[in-house]
Amino acid sequence: MFESLSSLFLRWMSRRSLRSLHASGSVIGWLTYWLSPSYRRRLGEHATLAGLAPAAWRPAIASAGEMVMELPYLWLRDAATPISRSVTWRGAELVDAALDEAAARQRGIVFLTPHLGAFEVIAQAYAERYGARSPFTVLYRPSRQRALRKLVDQSRARPGLATAPASLAGVRQMMRALRRGEAVGLLPDQVPPDGMGVWAPYFGKPAYTMTLAARLAQQTGARIVLMRCERLPRGQGFMIEATNMVESFPEGVASDEAHQVECAAVINREMERLVLRSPGQYLWAYNRYKSPREPASPLDL
User: Per the CB 3.0–4.6 Å rule, which of 2, 77, 148, 274 could disulfide with 143?
Assistant: First the structure.
């Protein structure tokens, strides 16, 4: 009964306008900030680590609520309403060139984005624009709530878009996609399970960082493209920007831990640059510096 009511409510929300969803989300974001001392403290501490003045990070309070409230629209909106109607692109020529290169070399593309803005939009927008040319596989962590997991799985099953769980099976799925010359996407600022990362600086503080992003590219020859999706004001939609990495990975042996730390540090610095372009839309309260969760089987890539 509860699951049915929740589903009906989410579907009702999916029919609201982005403007109304973002307006209510802004209120929820601020309520959460003031009602949760631990949330408020972590958000402020993490933004301060990045050297930001309060004026730069305060918009992130409302942005976090906006992100939550737009999810029903992204997951459950009518199939006749493509997300592309709400999206503008910058750097699309870079994606086109990367796809041409991937097709010519039979090597894929690794898209990376942090927990910034409307990052959920990127996969859907890519699938609508490029999915017929090169399918997109995204790494995700399944929800622990059965009803929500089913709902999210159904919503992400779209033409040109596949999902891979954050597990050894999911990693193998992404490797196969890259070797077919397809595209994959992941959020490298997400804390991986124990055994799937290394400790590397993130805004000057050690953070357990996945090694997967660099290893996928290095072991398949895939090209890395950075993405960010900015939420436009007053429900006007979203802006997706594609850019190249500023740094290159150092030379070394992929299995060497010191080399993995160096590569993870490069990825973290790239994510920092993206975040600082839109600091008012980053999830600063995400527990980025926590210890990894339960041990995972070693990855043999």
Answer: 148
Identify the pLDDT of residue 224: 97
- Beta-carbon contacts of 17 under 8 Å, excluding residues fewer than 6 positions away, are 235
Tokens at 70, concatenated: 């737009």
Secondary structure letter of residue 221 according to DSSP: T
Assigned domain for 19 exists: no
The tally of domains found in the chain comes to: 1
The strands making up 238-243's β-sheet, listed across from edge to edge, are 87-90, 238-243, 223-231, 109-112, 183-186, 136-140, 161-165
Can you give the residue range of the structural domain that contains 112? 82-281
Q: Which residues contact 11 (CB under 8 A, 6 or more apart)?
A: 72, 76
User: What is the torsional sign of CA 203, 209, 213, 214?
Assistant: positive
For residues 77 and 214, what is the distance between their CA atoms, to the nearest angstrom?
Answer: 34
Let me know if residue 68 belongs to a domain. no
Q: By CB neighbour count within 10 A (0-12 exposed, 13-18 middle, 19+ buried), where does 299 fall?
A: middle
Whether 110 contacts 99, CB under 8 Å: no
Within a domain: residue 184?
Answer: yes
Mean pLDDT split into 10-residue runs, the chain, 301 residues: 62 84 96 97 97 97 96 83 93 95 91 96 95 91 63 70 85 93 95 92 97 93 96 95 96 82 97 97 96 60 40
